[in-house]
Amino acid sequence: MSQVYVTDTILRDAHQSLIATRMRTEDMLPICKKLDQVGYWSLECWGGATFDACIRFLKEDPWERLRSLREALPNTRLQMLLRGQNLLGYRHYADDVVRKFIELSAENGIDVFRIFDAMNDIRNLQTAIDAVKKADKHAQGTICYTTSPVHTKTQFVEMSKQMESMGCDSIAIKDMAGLLTPSKTAELVKALVAELNVPVFIHSHATAGLADMCQLKAIENGCRHIDTAISAFAGGTSHPPTESMVAALRDTEYDTGLDLELLQEIGFYFHEIRKKYHQFESEFTTLDTRVQVNQVPGGMISNLSNQLKQQDALGRMNNVLTEIPRVRKDLGYPPLVTPTSQIVGTQAVMNVLTGERYKTITNEVKLYLQGRYGKAPGAINQALKIQAIGTEEEPIDCRPADLIPDELEKLTYEIHSLAESEEDVLTYAMFPEIGQEFLQQRKDGTLVPEPLEPVTAASTGTDKPIPVEFEVTMHGETYVIRVDGTGHKSMKKRPFYVTIDGIPEEVLLETIEVIQPDGSTSTAEQDDNKSKRRRASKPGDVSTTMPGVIIDVLVKEGDTIKEGAPVLVTEAMKMETEIHAPVSGTIKAVHIQKGDAVNPDETLIEIE
């Protein structure tokens, strides 16, 4: 059989790669009827970063999204991306949590589970594969494709054979960064097809501009399943356009049989929808062959750009892209895919922003160096390992989850006052802090999604401004005013460019009162001076090196503390960092509490 089958990523990886996973369910459902008519092999619509984005930014229940999509797409397989023992979080979970998550995902609508491990450690896949098979769903084992001194074609083939023997129904090549070249694709696919009895899928990001050529070479060498994205969300760090691949294969032995005109209608719909999310567009999600050096995948680039913007450090992106390969080498060349991409990327950001390599080391890097994520592909920098975890730490040489006792009952108890279902418990399990916050806000009726900036001339890509025209009458005189443009809303004194009775003018508006999401108001001066903490200047002043949020405070006034002991935990860019006591002494004052936003060099705790 030569027909090629298509998996479309428009509802998951496409918008994760280009607009930081911000597409809302309300913009997916209206087009589902047409998506369901296409005849895709599957639609990828869940997993990856969608779960996190739903509760963190969109204030949507991800389980409700899945149920809604299942109802709206009755004739199409729904597919999710699952991080093996990590599920959708950033740590390994106990086996009972993995089994329950997959059981409920299947019950709520998932048909195909693409299962990967960020370390390519297949020990971390077995429980998930077994659970998918028990649910009578399609288990797809995944190679996280990467290049390094320790990765080879032979190694990838052997890994695939082992996943097939573990029960996988298919094998996917996950080229998350767009590292494949046409010739390497041909070699790898040919070798896999020769050795496997299950279908081979190819998932390649278009970052370097090679993905469509790679897919054609994969098809010519026996691959019959390709991942694409509707054109409005294709290219750059996303995937080859669905319409283009369908057109390329039409009237050949590989014809997909898909209706090109129907796909074009869908493309026009998403073309308009994308404008709505213009504030999440990044200049770093276009074609960029530097990925062949820095290996940063599409979803990571999009999110990294937004995270640097939040730190007011977007101008240092190139420094971060240069630092990432260095950190990756120090950690033994892990493939850059969630969560290792986040671990490596965040550490690289910290190295750049603090101006000193490994001055601050995230908790996740420490866990990685302990072996809590699995076996590193290559040798780890021993000096870094000693700096991070010391010399007394026993190396973990078993499957990490073997050390984690069942935890579902404990998690259920912790969140029982807010959880209305087993799904709610798993939401809390994936992301304890933001999961609990989401469930509390749902209970209180205060769920408010992040605001979307209005569509302007700049965001639509047109040369002509979108005018707002009105009349103002003062003291008996009427003026015709047209607003031709504005400065960014974040500016304290925001310029509005207007025409008054045909005469161009510039008006500066200074915000003096702000309406908060809860309906309360505050003055701009109050907002600017929200933190009254003094600048850290004494040896015993505890501060952070990056803006973040307090996750936990580990000490209280009057405690005796030793130099180097942890005193608080912060979160920045989804990664947690322990802050340690700079000196030994007694806790004199604690100026923060859980949930507080903090800035660099503020005195958070005083030790004397």
Structure overview:
The chain is an alpha/beta fold. It contains 23 helices and 22 strands. The strands form 5 sheets. An 8-stranded parallel β-barrel has the order 1-2-3-4-5-6-7-8, surrounded by 5 helices. The longest helix has 16 residues, at 260-275.
What are the main properties of this structure?
608 residues, 36% helix, alpha/beta
Beta content:
15-25%
Give the helix level as a range of percent. 25-40%
Mean pLDDT: 88
Over all CA atoms, what is the radius of gyration? 26 Å
Short synopsis of the structure:
By secondary structure, the protein is of the alpha/beta class.
Topology:
Layout: E1 5-8, H1 13-18, H2 25-28, H3 32-38, E2 42-47, H4 50-58, H5 62-72, E3 78-82, H6 95-108, E4 112-115, H7 126-134, E5 138-144, H8 153-165, E6 170-175, H9 182-195, E7 200-204, H10 211-220, E8 225-228, H11 242-249, H12 260-275, H13 291-294, H14 298-310, H15 317-330, H16 340-354, H17 363-370, H18 382-389, H19 408-414, H20 422-430, H21 432-444, H22 457-460, E9 468-474, E10 477-486, E11 493-500, E12 503-510, E13 514-515, E14 521-522, H23 524-528, E15 541-542, E16 548-553, E17 560-561, E18 566-572, E19 575-580, E20 585-590, E21 597-598, E22 605-607
Parallel strand pairs: 1-2, 1-8, 2-3, 3-4, 4-5, 5-6, 6-7, 7-8
Antiparallel strand pairs: 9-10, 10-11, 11-12, 13-14, 15-22, 16-18, 16-21, 17-20, 18-19, 20-22
